[in-house]
Amino acid sequence: DAGITQSPRHKVTETGTPVTLRCHQTENHRYMYWYRQDPGHGLRLIHYSYGVKDTDKGEVSDGYSVSRSKTEDFLLTLESATSSQTSVYFCAISESGQTTGELFFGEGSRLTVL
Amino acid sequence: SQQGEEDPQALSIQEGENATMNCSYKTSINNLQWYRQNSGRGLVHLILIRSNEREKHSGRLRVTLDTSKKSSSLLITASRAADTASYFCATKGSSNTGKLIFGQGTTLQVKP
């Protein structure tokens, strides 16, 4: 299994509170991604990173920010959580975005916003 | 909106039967990939087919790609109860960011 660790794995929070999800990899892969998975929507890309301090928006980036200060860590922050952000969040990594783009996924972080 | 759309959304078969899932997409692609997700787990890469390939095999998996119809199919032969999972297609565009766009998935149940 690819060395990808997501934390926390489960979190319950209240509307309006900040939340940070962490993705840590030990594979030294250049590309990292955050997806959310919701019934009826499949997986949707939130943000991705193509290098340290290099990030870009995905298709559902509103309400989310990311940071990548080291190759191994990619943080996803919800500045003020809303109930619509209740979801399962997956981090993924890719060695070579320029060729195959095969992704390796973490086990997911289940977030509930009350 | 999603790039890939899987069909059917749900499929239930008996062990030993074949399972076929289809994926349609909208724009030109570099490659198309299939992933599997067991309940409560992350996605696992199964197979990749490039835009210049028409068919690919991996064990009991057979993937076809028809770029003229913008569609792909995943065939699982001689299915097993352990194949019960959700299956997603994902497309990679020609840009160099490597990001994949996923469909909504097909939920497969294989009954013993």
Would you kindly provide a written description of the structure presented here, covering whatever features stand out?
The complex is a heterodimer of chains A (114) and B (112). Chain A is mainly β and 114 residues long. Helices cover 0% and strands 56% of the residues of chain A. In chain B, strands 2, 4, 5, 9, 10 and 11 form a 6-stranded mixed sheet that branches. Chain B has a 5-stranded antiparallel sheet with strand order 1-3-8-7-6, with no helix packed on it. Chain B is globular, with a radius of gyration of 13 Å. Chain B starts with a strand and ends with a strand. Classes of the chains: A mainly beta (114), B mainly beta (112). Chains A and B meet through strand 4, strand 5, strand 9 and strand 10 of A and strand 4, strand 5, strand 9 and strand 10 of B.
Offer a few descriptive terms.
heterodimer; A: 114 residues; mainly beta; seven-stranded mixed sheet; four-stranded antiparallel sheet; 11 strands; 0% helix; B: 112 residues; six-stranded mixed sheet; globular
What is the straight-line distance between the termini of chain B? 36 Å
Could you tell me the mean pLDDT of chain B?
91
Specify the structural class of chain A.
mainly beta
Structural class of chain B: mainly beta
- The radius of gyration of chain B is 13 Å
Give the strand content of chain A.
over 45%
Low-confidence runs of chain B (pLDDT<50, min 5 residues)? Answer: none
The dominant shape of chain A is globular
The total count of strands of chain A amounts to 11
Helix segment tally of chain A = 0
Largest interface: A-B, 30 and 25 residues
Unreliable spans of chain A: none
Helical percentage of chain A: under 10%
Q: Provide the β-strand percentage band of chain B.
A: over 45%
Query: Looking at the chains present, what oligomeric state does this protein adopt?
Result: heterodimer
Largest sheet of chain A, if any?
A: 7 strands, mixed
Mean pLDDT of chain A: 92
